[in-house]
Amino acid sequence: MAGKNLIIFVPPGAGKGTQSEVIKEKISVFHLSTGDMLREAIKNETETGKLAKQYTEAGKLVPDEVVIKIVEEKVASIDKDMGTLFDGFPRTLDQAKALDAMLEKLGRSIDAVIAIMVPDENIVTRLTGRRMCPACNMIYHITAKPPKKEGVCDHDGEVLIIRKDDNEKVIRQRLDTYHQQTSPVMDYYKERDLLKEIDGTGTPKETSDKIMTLFE
Ligand code: ADP
After folding, report:
1. Checking CA distances to 57, which of 41, 42, 157, 163 falls within 20 to 30 Å?
2. What does the buried/exposed string (b/e) look like for 129-147 if buried means 16 or more CB atoms within 10 Å of the residue's CB?
3. Residue 67 Cβ contacting ligand 1 at under 6 Å
4. Domains along the chain?
5. Confidence at residue 1, expressed as pLDDT on a 0 to 100 scale
6. Is 106 helix (H, G, I), strand (E, B) or coil?
7. Residue 100 alpha carbon to ligand 1 centre in Å
8. How many Å separate Cα 82 from the centre of its chain?
9. What's the rounded Cα separation, in Å, for the pair 23 and 38?
10. Mean pLDDT per 10-residue run, the chain (216 residues)?
11. Active site residues
């Protein structure tokens, strides 16, 4: 599957980060996460970061033109033979259309869209227990995926943090945003027969095993 361009498509907090890691280990793709890119920009207080901060902290989508610009810059720099795993992008129809256009310019296209399906009720429980490493962005969960030593990253020993947007009010806002704006994007790929739906209600391992069957 080298050189493939994939989208991983999941509700907020349904394990995008975790499953992206698994896919990245299995096949050779560049992992492009707009959530990570935006958090990095916010941390570095760049112009993009200053603009994005108010939206992410309110659980709202960052404006399309801002996200499309950072993705466009990144995509152009990725080796064509490597392919890309798009994580958290596209989230709107305009982003999906912009992605098609930028890939076409580079002689590439989307090969498959992996949609992990999880009901809203499960998501709230999951996100309130989520912890993140501020240094390497590794995601943990207090019960489902605890670090070896409580509160500390396995990789670099940094103290894990709770993301500002991981509180129940913001989570519900993010789920509402997701349903309103992102469902049409799933339909966009479904119509083109690119959508592979995966049941994401089991353990992270069960979900990743299901994803792996797609690559066999
Ligand atoms: P989640 O935890 O929701 O899966 P991400 O880490 O992908 O989230 O994104 C965190 C926040 O960054 C989002 O709630 C949103 O404000 C912003 N964001 C990330 N990707 C996009 C995008 N493609 N379009 C607009 N906003 C985005």
Report:
1. 157
2. bbbbbeeeebbbbeeebeb
3. yes
4. 5-119+171-215 (3.40.50.300)
5. 43
6. coil
7. 19
8. 19
9. 22
10. 80 80 87 94 95 90 95 91 92 95 94 91 87 94 92 97 87 84 90 94 90 86
11. 16, 91, 130, 163, 174
* Beta partners for residue 8, in sequence order: 87, 114
Nearest one of 96, 113, 68, 123 to 184, comparing CA atoms: 96
Q: Which residues of 87-102 are buried (b: 16+ CB within 10 A; e: fewer)?
A: bbbbbbeebbebbbeb
Establish whether residue 86 lines the binding site of ligand 1, counting it when its CB lies within 6 angstroms of any ligand atom: no
CA 35 to centroid of ligand 1, rounded, Å: 5
Residue 171 burial by CB count (10 A; 0-12/13-18/19+): exposed, middle or buried?
buried
Residue 108 CA neighbour count, 13 Å, CB half: 21
Which of 10, 33, 34 to mutate for ligand 1's pocket (most ligand atoms within 8 Å of CB)? 34
Q: Is the beta carbon of 56 within 6 A of some atom in ligand 1? A: yes
